[in-house]
Amino acid sequence: MAQELRDAADYPHKMPSVRSLRRYIERWEKGEVVRVTERYRILYTRAFGMSDDELFEDGPQPPPAPNPNEGDVEAIRGMLAALMASDRQFGGTRIRRQATEYLTDVIEPRLRGHASDPLRRRLFAVSTEFTLRVSAMNLDTDRPDTSLTLLGRAASMANESGDPSLTAWVLSRRGEHEMHQATLARRPAQKAGYVDQALAYTEGAVGIARAVPPLGRAFLTTKAALAWSLTGNRARTQRILGDVWDAYERTGTTTEPSWINAYGVGHLRHEEARCYVNLGMGRHAIRSAEQSLATRTEPRPRAFTLGVLSIAHAQNLNIEQACAYGHELLALAAEISSRRVCLRVTEVLDALRPHQDQPAVTELYEAARPVLARCAR
Description:
The chain is an all-alpha fold. Among the domains are: 2-55, no CATH class; 296-377. The chain has 18 helices and no strands. The chain has helices at 2-7, 18-29, 38-48, 52-55, 70-90, 96-111, 117-140, 144-161, 164-184, 188-209, 214-229, 234-248, 265-278, 282-293, 299-315, 319-333, 339-352, 359-376. The longest helix has 24 residues, at 117-140.
């Protein structure tokens, strides 16, 4: 067939070799060629002596995209709220697959439907929020590549929503993705590369966030502070944290974006504590983490803050307190399906490693064994 296809061309000597054509035909027959170009469609019809319709008749067409209505936005937002509650209570593994299917089968087809501009923007806005949540769940279940792909989809949705705060949020999440990769990197040069990328994304988010209402701006700015804290630059990090609280003090002066309702001062204090831990400023981190812990009651967010508080006490040489908070973290980690909570357990143990001769640390290490074994599965 390859030779016949070549001979059907007006200028056979300009065609690919018979061997290359044979590979192309094999791919087409296996269904690996999704779209046959116009040039090859003509050659196939000549070689087979059949019409284009006979040879390339399309199979069953997918159903038309459903046109969204006013109730769709609220239904998706309700599903998002339930998804977030489950994620914070149990971790992402248990519900990630269902969330992905809902995004693919329910949400995205409606984005292709016809709607008025206001409804369309609201639909793309809530879809951006949903996609960001599913992306975070994939990162939390050790699927960074899928998480990154979803961030790309969220970026397109945010652009269609016309809401700059969502675009900034996607950039911040992209920066968080790079920071997560930096914590896993083993080579200093590799880690530095991830941190540089995180700085680029989070600084871009801060630039856009200048037009965002105060609480949203404070939330987005914490990510830039976190990225700078990974460089060890105390002055720059603390200056950005000052910008965070300057923005927070203006909260209530204008309407905030809907997505910020999922976050509050406890989240801001948690990120501040993470910055101070990264800078080795244990005393400051303790104060911020304690304030955060007072409001973060859901298991997964609380586990993260307990880990930060434990590390902060270790930095401040309060070893007994560090171990006490470490045990609280282990109790939650045993019940939550979260790769990042497991990483936080490891970070706590690493912070206490220099004090392994103390009985409290030895006891914590022993208690951590079954939890880490579960994490490894």
